[in-house]
Design brief:
With about 120 residues, the chain is of the alpha+beta class. The protein has four helices and seven strands; from the N terminus they run βαβββαβαββα. The protein is globular, with a radius of gyration of 13 Å.
Length: about 120
């Protein structure tokens, strides 16, 4: 069973994503996917006003359900903080993004969070 653990403390997020340059104008959230106590993946979301961006996601592309869970967790985190629109530029998870309902425009994936989270989980 996979457990998705949230982080909203920037110091803890910085441990998981040391390459992140934190903006003072944004709120950050992160999730780790824990399987049998071990980290199986992680995801970072940046929220600015009513928009969010999934800026980093590390997980095995061979496990699309894990990737989907991380993306959905990040979108829920953002929605609970007032975000409505979502963007992602991570082509490594393109298949999952499209399956969730993101639209690709000029190499960027966009969508509205209510539409992206509509329907049942595990669309695979």
């Amino acid at each position: 069973m996979v457990f998705y653990k949230p982080y909203s403390d920037n110091s803890k997020i910085a441990e998981w994503f040391p390459q992140t340059d934190f903006s003072e104008d944004a709120v950050y959230g992160a999730y780790t996917a824990l399987e049998s106590g071990a980290v199986a993946g992680k995801c970072l979301v940046k929220i600015a006003g009513t928009a969010c961006e999934i800026t980093d996601l590390e997980a095995s592309s061979a496990d699309p359900l894990l990737v989907e869970g991380l993306i959905r967790s990040a979108l829920h985190f953002a929605a609970n903080r007032g975000a409505y629109a979502a963007v992602c530029r991570l082509h490594s998870v393109k298949d999952v993004l499209l399956l969730l309902g993101f639209r690709e425009e000029n190499g960027t994936f966009n969508g509205t969070i209510p539409e992206l989270l509509a329907g049942s989980c595990c669309k695979h």
